[in-house]
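Hi D.,

Good news: the full-assembly prediction came through. Inputs first.
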Amino acid sequence: MTSPNKTDSPTSSATPCMKKPTPTMTNPNKTASPTSSATPCMKKPTPTMTSPNKTDSPTSSATPCMKKKKSDRLLSVLGLPATIIFKLLDADFVHDEDVQGLTPMELSSATGLTLKESAEVVRLSAASSIEQPVTILQMLKEQCEVPYIATFCEALDSLLGGGIPLRAITEIYGTPGIGKTQMCLQACVSVQLPSSVGGVGGEALFIDTEGSFTAGRLKDMATDAIQHAQTIGGKNVDTSDFTDISILKGIHYFRCLNYIEIVAVIKHLPSLLKSNPKMHLIVIDSIAFHFRHDFPNVKARAGLLCHMTQELIQLATKFNLAVIVTNQMTTKIECEGSSELVAALGETWGHCPTLRLALHWSGETRVATLTKAPHRRNSSVNYQVTLAGIRDLPSVDAETVNTHTTEMPETKKRKLPND
Amino acid sequence: MRLTVGMCSALTEDVMTKLQNSGIRNVTDFMLKDPESLAMESSVSYKDLYSIRQIIRAHYAAFAVSGDDMLEAAIKTAIAITTGNTNLDNLLGGGLMAGEVMEVCGGWGVGKTSLCVNLAVHAALKFGKSVLYIDPLASISALRISSVVEALSEEPELVGQALAHIKIVTPSDVWGVFQALEVARQPHFLTRKKDRGSNGGGESSSIKSMGKTKLVIVDSLPAVILPLLAEPKKQGLGIINQLAVALKSLASEQQLAVVVVNNTCITLADFSGQGAESNSKWKPALGRWRHQVLQHQGTYRRKECTTTAIVICTPDESTITLDQDLSKRMNTLQYVAELVPRSRCKCSVVVSTPLLDRLFFTELSAGAAVFQLCSLKDFFTFLKLCRLKNDLRLYLRENDF
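Then the structure:
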C-alpha cells in the first residue's frame, strides 16, 4: 500500500463506521468511543435524550463515521416497481428492517398497497440470498482449457487463437458477399466434429433473419468435413457416426421475420438448451437486419441490444456455448465530408460482443481482420470461400491439407476502392 | 423511523388520530410544519408536539465533531492503490484513491476491460487486497485471463493466492448490481467451490474467508443501465441516481476505491465541418450519471448520501469562542460568507432560518454528518479539508442547533 506523502492508514480499526442506536440504548456515552481511540466513529443520540446538549462535545479522537447494520438494505433497491416504492416511502418505510416482522395485512393497511403487493414486498425484503461470488482462481481451474470451434482455415484459426471460442460472443461483420453466412455455415458444420478428432462434438442453432440459409451449401461443406475427419482420425478413430445426415440433423433452424421473434427465441433458449444439452453453437445471421429497419428510436435499440447481449453471454457462460452474430456495414460521414465504412448498429453495439472480426476485400482477395479480441493482437489474414467452405488461400506448392477442391462456386463480388 | 403510536410518550392514539386528520402522514410532513400552526390546526398541545419533534430530531440529527479531527482522520485514512503503471499513477495523482469513484470510458475494443483486469491483478498481487469485480457482461473468462496470468513474472503460488483474492460476480440486471455491492460491505468474504458434478468426483463445497475488499470494479455499467433508459417510464434516471449514490457511499464509508467502466457515444448534431478535434465528438455515455457521481449536486431525500454539511452554530454562552457581541457576530458571519466562495469547495451559504431548517432536516435525514466549528481556526481547517474531499457543503445558521 503506497501513499506518497501520507502515513500508512491503520488497519481495519480506522475504517469509518456508522452505528444507529437502538431505542433501548440508555447511555449514549460520548466520552467513550465504542472501539479503539483511533477509530473515527460517531454515535447518534438516543430518542430518550430531551435536550441536545451542545456541551457534550466528543473527545478529540472521535471523528465522523457511521456504522451500518448488516441487513440495512434500502427497499428501493429490491427491484419493485416505482408505484409501490413511492407508497412505501410515503409511509416512511425506507429500510429492510422497517418491514421486518410485519404481515402483509399490516403493511397494506399502513401503506395503502394491495395485499398482493405487500406480500411481494415482504417476500423480497426477507430474501437475503446473495449469490456467492467465484474467484478467478476457481474460474481458471474449472475452465482449464478453452475449447474452440475450428474454422478449417488454418490462418484464421491462428488469428483467433485456435478458432471461434466457446463462452464468448463473436461478431462477424462485412460488406455483402464477403462470406459472413459462409462462415456461419462452416461453423455449424465444424462444431459437430467429434471430440475424438479434436472437435467440440456439439449441435448448432441457426437463427436466420435474412433467409440466406441454404441446405445445399451445408451438404457440400458436410461432405468435405467428413473426409477431413476421416483423414485426421486415421484408422484408430471411428468416425462412422459423423455422416451427412447426422450433421444436418444436428443443426436446429429458426426463421425470424422481425425483431420480436428474435427476442422470443432468445427468451426461449434456456428451456431449449436444457432439452438439448449437446448444443454448443448459436448463430444469429444477421442481427442487423431487423434492428435497422424496425427501430426508429436509437435509445430503445441500444437498450434492447444490450439486454439481448447480456442474456446471450450469460447463457454462453452457463451452458458452454459459442455465439456467432453477423452484422452489416453502414457509412459514417465524417465532419470534413469524407466517409468511412463501419459496422452497423452503432457504437453501443460495438461494446457488446467479445470478439469482432471484420471481413473485407483487398483487391481480389478476401481478408479477415480481428478488430476486437481480449486475448489476441489485432491483425489480418487472407482466406477464400471454396466449395468445401472457408479455407486458406492455396500456397504456391499445393501440398496443404486444407484445400481438397479448387472448384469455386459463383461468388458475389462487390468491389470496394482499394485500401 | 416511523410516525407510530408508542414512538414516544407524547404520541398516543388520540394524538395520532388528530395528526392524521390534519393531513400529517409521515415524519417529513410532521417536521416541515411549523409546530405552532400545527398545534392550532390539530388541537394537540404544543408541548406534546415539541417533545415529538425533539425525539425525531434527535434520531436523525448527526453528531457534531470538530473539523480538526475530521482533517486528521482524512489524512490518516487516505490511501492510494497504485495501478502498476507509473504514467497512469502520475495522471491520477498517486493511484486510485480510496473513497473515490473513477470512471474509465472509451470506445469499443480500446482496452477498458484489459485495464480493469490489470488493475485488479496488480492490486491483489502487490498489496494483497481483495478485489470485487462486478461483471454483467461476463467479460472475464479464462480466455482473457489465461494470457494475463501466464505473463506474470511472480511465482505460481503467489499468483494463485492473488487470484484467489479477486472475486467475480455476474449480475444479470441492475438489482443484481445492488446486491453485489452489498457483498463488498461484508468484512469477511465467503467463497464457494463449485462441485465438479459432471465427472462424478464431487468436491464438497468449502468456505474460505478472505480479507476486506479494497477495490470494486464495475465493468460496463451501460450494459445494465441502457435497458432501463430505453423503457418509456422515467424510472431509469432515478435508478441511475440511486446506483451513483450507492457506489459513492460504498466508496466513502468502506474506504475503498471504485472503478466504473462506461462507453462513449457520439454527440449528435456536431457536423459543423469545422474540423474540431476528435475528443469533442465523443462524450461518455449515460450523460446524467456523471452529474451525480462527479459533481454531487442536489439533495438526495431519503437516500444515504455522503455530502457532509458543516454547520457553524452561533454558540450559546457556555461554549463561546466566537465573539458574543451581535454586531461582531454578524460581521464574522459575513466575513465567512465572503470567504467561502473563494475557497475551492462547493458551498451553499444560506442564512435565513426557515429555509435552512428544511434543508437541514432533509440533509440530516439523508445521513449527512454535521460538524461543529467552534472557532475560525476550525473553519480554516475545514477549508483545508475541502481540498481533500470534493463534496462538502457549508451551511450557516443563526439559531441554536
